[in-house]
Amino acid sequence: MVSWITPDDIKNYVCDGAIDDATAQWVADATTGAVRDFINRDLEQGTFTELYTTNNTDYVMLEHYPIVSIASVQIIGYGVIQPFDIAQFGSQNTGWVRDDQNVVRKLRFAGLGKLPRCSVPNVLVTYTAGYPVGTPPDPQSSPWFAGTGLPTAIYEAMKLTAAAIVNAQASDPNVANEMTAGVFSATFLPTGIGAIPPAARSYLQPYVGYAP
Q1: Dihedral (CA of 58, 63, 69, 74) sign
Q2: Position 211 pLDDT exceeds 60
Q3: Structural domain containing residue 96
């Protein structure tokens, strides 16, 4: 697993010179895991070859996003589908179309009509999607566009989460917070979704994934 935030950024943000390289890497990994679990998706850019099934629709919803490029599309019974040529609009032109930013995962098939419901996958798509990691965050990146790095909102959420993890571990290796006024009460917060503070959750909400 590649961390989405660097150990150096962890050390710089939490402003704690006592954090060594190994601890900073652990916090970076724990932060990445917590954010990945919360948004329920991978953000790292890659090339994917996936099968999809139509259901009386003229589109499929790709699993990974934002979509960077589409290499090939094949549909059983139609063969290889070429990109839609807007210059030929109004003729018998057919082809695949990436939908607008409001439906970031939608791959539509223009001119083919609604494809029948299939009991087995009938669409094969090879495409590139996700954000570059290991580079500085890019303010141009957004839920529907991949720039040169992760969106700044994701990075801000990761810094807040990293600070929460470090602070919890500093107060007690196992206990995030506790109350001893009369009855002992404690919240255990080593890592995971529970490590993400409310401010970070608001940054992450637009990036939460959903089933294709």
Answers
A1: negative
A2: no
A3: 46-129
Q: In whole angstroms, how far apart are CA 206 and each of 8, 39, 106, 197, 201? A: 27, 9, 17, 16, 9
Q: How many helices (H) and strands (E) does the chain have?
A: 4, 9
Q: Are residues 182 and 116 both part of a single domain?
A: no
pLDDT in tens, 46-97: 999 999 999 899 999 999 999 999 999 999 989 999 998 876 655 567 899 9
- Positive/negative CA dihedral, 203, 205, 207, 208: positive
Residues 6+ apart with CB under 8 A from 175: 168, 186, 187, 188, 189
SS3 75: strand
DSSP state of 84: P
Q: pTM of this prediction?
A: 0.82
The residue written with tokens 């895991």 in the block is 33
pLDDT (tens digit per residue) in 161-178: 999 888 876 655 544 444
Residue 118 has pLDDT above 90, yes or no: no
Around Cβ 201, how many Cβ atoms within 10 Å? 16
Residue 23: which residues within 8 A CB-CB, separation 6 or more?
Answer: none
Place of tokens 């939490």: 14
Phi, psi of 161 (to 5 degrees): -70, -40
Last residue of a domain, one of 129, 158, 176: 129
Co-location of 31 and 51 in the same domain: no
